[in-house]
Amino acid sequence: MRTLASADSLLDDVAAAVRGDASCGVLATGRFTPAAEAGELSAAALFAGPSVPVTVRFSSAVGGFGGFGGFGDQGLAVRFHVGAEQDMDLLASTLPVLAVRNVLGMLEFLRATNSGDAAAVSDFFGRHPEAATAMALAEDALPAESFTGVTYHAVHTFGLVDEDGRTTWARLSWEPWWPLAPLSREEALGRPADYLTRGLAGRLPSGFRLVARFAGAEDLGVLHDPTRLWASGAGLMAELGELMLDGVGVGESPDFDPLRLPLGFEAPRDDLFGVRVAGSPS
Fold first, then answer.
1. What is the pTM of this model?
2. Overall domain count for the chain
3. Where do the Catalase core domain residues begin and end (predicted)?
4. Segment 39-69, tens digit of pLDDT
């Protein structure tokens, strides 16, 4: 594992973990077409239709979240090119929750998991029981067959603000058109290290549905807690639109910014949202 040398590098890792920046990535292009119900929930221009172009970056963090647990996490960052200061960036990953609730906790987590000291890791979990859900999911995660075949979660709870100013809090996810069964760890290790990136072109065209899940009564106490899964069932959801990807992108990656939110969205209220890092992601 990499040794972290300074507070600045720790803060950079916090931003990378929260934003979904990763060790390797590949761009794709396509279009997002909103569903009719999306315009009723949010006044955002990207939901006004009929469709908007998008730039997407798929990424893969080998070794799992923070270098601990699981085979690896995949990331999906989407730039909606709406124009007139209505562009939006939505960052998501295959892990549906975070390990900690705030920046201090994230710093402690990264120090422990990058220390190489099993006692430090054990001590961290003893002091942060909220990390148990994320770590259990990371440990059980299997390698993806393709970037296009897995679900990505935005993790944080976003406010969808309608034309009358009413806010509906929701968690957003990208669900694949064609889900793919995961690989075994042995199968993945037998492939080139960049098999996900290299294999993207052969999977296109492909796409995802943008789904909003709403909190049930039992979830209100953890509405803005990114370490907790919601108990609400499948009935408390709406489809916001479809993302169709038809080509591999070229050039430099956009500077994806979780704070790039248009009118029609209210920013998440948890303490980790909006942590930023200088410089462009990989």
1. 0.87
2. 1
3. 3-281
4. 999 999 999 989 999 999 999 865 444 433 3
